[in-house]
Design a protein that fits this description.
The complex is a heterodimer of chains A (200) and B (233). Chain A contains seven helices and no strands. Chain A is mostly helical. In chain B, 73% of the residues lie in helices and 0% in strands. Chain B is built from nine helices and no strands. The chains are: A mainly alpha (200), B mainly alpha (233).
Chain lengths: 200, 233
Amino acid sequence: MNPATDGNETALRGHIPGEPGLWVLIFGDLLVFGVLFVTYAVSLVGDPDAMGLSQQKLSRGLGLANTILLLTSSWFIAHAVNAARRGSPRARRLILAALALGTAFVGVKVVEWGGHIGHGDTLNSSSFFTFYFMYTGIHLLHVLIGLGVLTWLARQCDSSGAWTGPFAVLEGSAVFWHLVDLLWVMLFALLYLLRHGAAA
Amino acid sequence: MKQGALRLGVFAGPLMGTLFFIAMWPLMHIFPPYSPTLGVEEVAAHVQENRTGFLVGGILLMTAASIVWPFITVIVLFLKKIEGEVPIWTTVTALVFTFGQFTVFLCGLAFTMAAFRPDASLEMVRTWSDLGMFLLVIPAIPGTTQYLATGAVILQDRRARPILPRWYGYLNIWVGILSAPGAVVGLFKIGPFAWNGIAAFWIPAIVFGVWITATQFTLLAAIKRNALADDQQ
C-alpha cells in the first residue's frame, strides 16, 4: 500500500498536507503573528529614530546564521517526509539532522540574548527590545514545541531507521516545522533588516 | 447515558463567561482595562465612581468561579474517555483548571477589597485594584499548561472516529501558545505587552472567546452522538 494515500480517497480529491484540523493551528498562528507584525510596524513608523537606534545593536550575522540553521533544518525534515514516503531507512537520520539544527538555533538564540542582556539591553529597557525579546521569545516557544515533536518523531522509527507511524503524522509535523521556519524568516526581515526613516 | 445532565453541564461554561463579562464591562468598567500608567488618584476615582459596580462585579466573578464546575467536569469526562486507564494529561487539565478558577475567585475578592471601605487610603485602593487586574490577566500562564495538556489528549486519540474532533485539539494548542504573553504584564506599563495591550490582553481575550465558543459546540456535538458510550478501540 502506498502510505501517502493511507487508505482514504483524499488523494483523488486533492491532498491536504498532514490533516485538515492542523490547519486551524497553522492559519490561526499566522493570523495572530500578522497582528503582531502590524503592531511592530506601526511602532516602527511612529518612533523611527529611537527604534532604529536600538535596532542597530542587533547582530545581523547571528540572525542570518539562525535563518540558515532553520531553513536547512526544514530542508532535512522535507527530505525525511520523502524518505518515509519511499519507506527508506534514512528517515530517522534526516529527522535527527533536523533536530540537531533546531537545537543549534536555540543555542545561537541563547548566545544572542545573553549578549544583549550583558550590554544592559533587556526586556523592558526600550520599546524596540521589548518587541525583540517578546517576539523572538514567542517564536522560541514554537521552536521548543517543534523540537519536542521532532524528538517524538525520531522515536517512531524502527531499528533500521524507517518511519513506522502514520504518514499524516510525519507530514503534519513537517508542516508545523515549516511554519516555525516561515515565522522566523518574517521576524528576521522585520526585526533585523527592515529600517525606517532617518535611521535607515 | 445522562445526555440531559451533560448538556446542562456544558451551559455552565457560557454562563460563567457571561457573568465574567457583565462584571468587567457594565459593572466595573474595566473592559477594556484602565491603563497601568494611571496615577493613584485616577484609579481611586475610578473605583469610587463605580463602587457598587465593583462590589457586585466582585460577587459575579466569585460566582462565575463557583458555577463553572459542571462545564469543566464534562470536558474532563470526555478527555478521560479518550485517554483511558492512565489519564495523565486529563488529570493535568483538571488540576490546572481548578487552579485557574481559584485565581478568578481571588480576582473577584481583590476588586471587592478595593471598593469595600470608602475611607481607605488612595494607595490601598489602587494596590487592591492592581492586584485584581493582575489576577485577571496573569493566570494565562497556567492556562497555557492546561490547553497544551488538553490538546495532547485529543491528538493522541487513535480511534477511526475520534471522540473529540482533531481540529479542536489543534485549536487548544493554538489557544495555549497565544495565552502565554499574559505572563509578562508585570514588566510593562505601556505597549502591546502591558495589561491593556494588544498582545497581553486583546489577543488572549479574543482567543479565549473563540475557545469557549468552540468548546460548547464541540461538546454538544459529542454528547449528541453519545460519544462517551462509544466502544471503538
